[in-house]
């Protein structure tokens, strides 16, 4: 009995240690990702578009600002693994998009929605603000300009 139980237990521990992990939604904008940028030619082709579901260019807003993220042609999936045809949203405050393959930094100007979120309420700086929405793959590597949207808004 011992000779059968030990290999089964070892296999179970190996599966737990090496199995896929689920990434919790990134609410800490200062957390650091350990992913490296990917060469653009190594990235899957993104087919679709992203858009702001409830905002348009030149809107005048008041804090806190509710933002809806939209995507067509790809599926939203939490970060953690690369699955063709999927990704998740990032809000870029003050930037329009990131180059294809570049990992989206995690800081107060680049907010990750690695849990697969499709909306958020944020506090933006007052005045004219450029908002970029960047769709990226499971390791936060940007799909580039083709899967980004950018608008200027005014915050009172």
Report the uncertain regions: 1-33
Which CATH class applies here? Mainly Beta
State the order of secondary-structure elements, H for helix, E for strand.
HEEEEEEEEE
CATH topology: Immunoglobulin-like
Q: Count of helical segments?
A: 1
Task: Give me the Rg, rounded.
Answer: 19 Å
SS class: mainly beta
Q: Proportion of β residues?
A: 25-35%
CATH homologous superfamily grouping: Immunoglobulins
Mean pLDDT: 81
How many domain units? 1
Q: How far from one another are the termini? A: 72 Å
State the helicity in percent bands.
10-25%
Number of strands: 9
The assigned CATH architecture is Sandwich
Element layout with pairings:
Elements: H1 2-18, E1 49-52, E2 60-61, E3 65-72, E4 75-76, E5 86-93, E6 110-112, E7 119-122, E8 127-136, E9 148-155
Parallel strand pairs: 2-9, 4-5
Antiparallel strand pairs: 1-3, 3-7, 5-6, 5-8, 8-9
Explain what you see.
By secondary structure, this protein is mostly beta strands. It has a single domain, classed as Immunoglobulin-like (Sandwich). The protein has one helix spanning 2-18, and strands at residues 49-52, 60-61, 65-72, 75-76, 86-93, 110-112, 119-122, 127-136, 148-155. The strands form two sheets. Strands 2, 4, 5, 6, 8 and 9 form a six-stranded mixed β-sheet that branches. Strands 1-3-7 form a three-stranded antiparallel β-sheet, with no helix packed on it. The N and C termini lie far apart (72 Å).
